[in-house]
TrEMBL record:
<dbReference type="GO" id="GO:0052621">
    <property type="term" value="F:diguanylate cyclase activity"/>
</dbReference>
<keyword id="KW-0732">Signal</keyword>
<dbReference type="InterPro" id="IPR026000">
    <property type="entry name" value="Apc5_dom"/>
</dbReference>
<feature type="domain" description="GGDEF">
    <location>
        <begin position="502"/>
        <end position="639"/>
    </location>
</feature>
<dbReference type="InterPro" id="IPR000160">
    <property type="entry name" value="GGDEF_dom"/>
</dbReference>
<keyword id="KW-0472">Membrane</keyword>
<dbReference type="InterPro" id="IPR043128">
    <property type="entry name" value="Rev_trsase/Diguanyl_cyclase"/>
</dbReference>
<keyword id="KW-1133">Transmembrane helix</keyword>
<dbReference type="InterPro" id="IPR011990">
    <property type="entry name" value="TPR-like_helical_dom_sf"/>
</dbReference>
<dbReference type="Pfam" id="PF00990">
    <property type="entry name" value="GGDEF"/>
</dbReference>
<keyword id="KW-0812">Transmembrane</keyword>
<dbReference type="Pfam" id="PF12862">
    <property type="entry name" value="ANAPC5"/>
</dbReference>
<protein>
    <recommendedName>
        <fullName>diguanylate cyclase</fullName>
        <ecNumber>2.7.7.65</ecNumber>
    </recommendedName>
</protein>
<dbReference type="InterPro" id="IPR050469">
    <property type="entry name" value="Diguanylate_Cyclase"/>
</dbReference>
<feature type="signal peptide">
    <location>
        <begin position="1"/>
        <end position="19"/>
    </location>
</feature>
<dbReference type="InterPro" id="IPR029787">
    <property type="entry name" value="Nucleotide_cyclase"/>
</dbReference>
<feature type="transmembrane region" description="Helical">
    <location>
        <begin position="422"/>
        <end position="441"/>
    </location>
</feature>
Amino acid sequence: MVVRRILLGLLLVCQAAVARSGDVHEDFTRDLTVIREEAYVMPRAALQRLDALRQAHTGRELGQVLVVTSRAYWWMKDKNRAVDAALGAERLGRELHDDDLLARAMLSHAYALSMFVHDQEAARRLIQGAARLAADSADPYLKTQALVTQGLLVEEDGDTAGGIEFVTRAVDVARAGADPDALQMALREQARLLAIVGKTTEALARTDEMIAAARARGIAGQLAHARLSEYGTAARAGNLKRAEAALKAAVDILEKLHARERLAVPLANLAELYMQSRRFGEAERAAVAALRISRAVGDDYGIQLASFELGLSQIYFRNIAEGRAMADQALEALKNDDQYVRMLLNYGHALGQVGFGEAALTIYEKAGSVSLAAWRKEKQSSYEALQRAWDNQKKQSELTALHHESVLKAADLQNARRQRSLWVALCATTCIAVVLIGFLYRRVAKANKSLQQKNDQLFLQSTRDSLTGLFNRHYFYEHVVPHHHRKAGAASERRAGAEGRTGGVFLLMDIDRFKSINDTLGHGAGDVVLKNVAARLAATLREQDVLVRWGGEEFLAYLPGIGTDEARQVCARVLAAVGGTPIALDDRALDVTISIGFCPKSLSPGDVDPDWEQLVHLADLCLYAAKQGGRNRAVGIVDAAALAPHVIAAADADLKRTAADDVLALATVIGPAAPPVRAAA
């Protein structure tokens, strides 16, 4: 009886110990998950908590802590500690024969090598090895992370469509595995890539799902990360109102979390949004706060970004010298940043708004050259990626051929010993060789076809807008800008010699009240309007005219070899084509009009033609005048020969006054639905 009681007591103690060990493991997993999700916004606080976990655990759990530690150091841009932690986790994964831990560690190692060491080949090998291990894993977070990372790798090679395919698979895996953190990661990257290719409606829908999932998860750091991602997606989609709301929400969460090391950059971005809506006082306060915080935490990037935004705010407040000094110094430090071109454009716009037209044009020219250089670099990278794929295919074919050659030699040796079966073996070998040659020929032909398709795809992606099918800015910079200063032949010069005629005209067109269409009918209706307007413009212009989707609801057209009178006629046709017939939209007919600004290009002997940026800028000023004049009309410059530098500067400062003082003559063409308005001479 006593022995039975002792055994029963031991059994109860063992059950309690097992239950307690299960609770401890669950606590560890939950704590590590929260730290992992909050490491992006609070890496220093996360490292302190990770250090405590590292002291208390060994084996596989220690390896998991090291993986998250490497990621936290990665967010802090501490490359040496990020690599060391990842290598420690890799070592444990191999010692324990734990493929899941090894795959996680290899991905963290690859992140550090790619961003900080720039050893892309080593990073690529680590990612591919981790993907092979993750394919056999039952962990949905690991499988999702591997697919997302492969998508980023494919995107880096220039294949954005392939990247979207990978992250879409990652979203499906995360949903099937019911892992909300994995789904959050996959949706974040899917929304970003969809916004890059112009699928803004789908991107914002993914963002909505991501925000809802983050709220349901209840991890404040994850919600802040989701809000920052929402800001980036909305900004790419051109929805500045939503971008500002998302950024404010993220800043509020970061302030409540005391995440000062992550707060400076969002505040600087918020200052940029305030300036775009001309709330310069709020922009200055946000930039000052960002500068103060970034200096306190030693964030060099935040210091430069905040200094740049503060410099722009000073320019708008007419502290020109001080503002330009701050902006120039910050830009010099940020010239390798992904947003460098956008910052140059904002800088040029600020200078233009306060009357420094010449300086603004210089900045715009620099932005154009930097953008063109970046595009060429991206194009070269895409070509190199295709070349690598072709080289790998070629090496594989060579290895296959060598393998079959060794098989044939072995058969020859065997046939030498067996004379009787010589002809049978020879016939069999010949048949195999024929089949192999045919197989190799088909593979080479397939590879050539695939390479041609990718080249065609690259050309379309680099020159065409995905929504409207029109040319994009890259095409304009590559095929129109280099020929801007070339003169036409003798026949064209004689045709342009009459009074009021030029060697070409730039038309800048903008859909009237397009924002209200998006706000009231939705972005899907806005896309339908953009497609219809683009089709009507393309059908109205000549075959030799270049029509470009300039951005958002703006279109740029370059009409070579025509005069001002012909430009007026073209504008009248364009206004009638767009505004004369309503656009069919589901169960309604939507009346849409367009406003146009045009500027001619001189071809007279001895004239110095302004840069194309100046001509487009003047067309933009005329477009603004058309908007102010009531929309559904075209306003343009009559005489290209009058575009001397001092006239351009005066028009940039105040176009209406310049026209009123008879320094520059303007012409107005009224659309079909507008009330009659007298045209300015």
